[in-house]
Design goal:
mainly alpha
């Protein structure tokens, strides 16, 4: 396996692209559902499935938010013990992807519930999760704070051309 070096700029560019792809995927799917699929003139509010989804979607959203925060914090606590910056940042990227996936799944499910029931109220839950994902976007500063990096590690990350080793 080839050991490639990556600059600080490249690392943050990659995680920013991953984040953007996940957010845009949700937004574009939401636009498709809203404008091209759902018929909000005839919402299904009477069926058993619609009745279940009214309670299930908010519970799933809350569970996704809690799970994303808990798993992220647990992963960060483990990463803080690692001394190698390259390994630490690889784990940080993993934890971010898991965090965003745990937020994306309930949002996607809410959008699918709109497709099934034509109930526009589920759009609020998907929108909330998209806003939360945007707020929790990855930055250099958030990486430094979350990983509790030392001064030497911070100087490597602040220099966009420095290689992460």
């Amino acid at each position: 396996m080839e050991n490639t070096q990556q600059s600080s700029r490249d690392f943050f560019k990659i995680i920013a692209c991953i984040h953007l792809a996940m957010v845009l995927g949700l937004v574009l799917f939401g636009i498709v559902v809203y404008f091209f699929v759902a018929d909000f003139q005839h919402p299904d509010l009477e069926s058993d499935l619609a009745g279940i989804l009214v309670y299930f979607i908010p519970g799933l959203v809350i569970a996704g938010i809690v799970a994303s925060n808990v798993t992220y914090r647990l992963k960060l606590n483990a990463l803080r013990e690692i001394t190698n910056l390259k390994t630490k940042l690889a784990g940080y990227r993993e934890s971010l992807i898991i965090r965003y996936a745990l937020l994306e799944a309930p949002a996607m499910f809410a959008l699918i519930a709109i497709f099934i029931t034509n109930n526009a109220n589920f759009l609020v839950y998907a929108g909330l999760l998209v806003v939360l994902m945007v707020i929790k976007r990855p930055t250099r500063k958030s990486a430094m704070i979350d990983l509790e990096l030392g001064q030497q590690e911070i100087s490597v990350l602040e220099d966009p051309d420095s290689m992460i080793e």
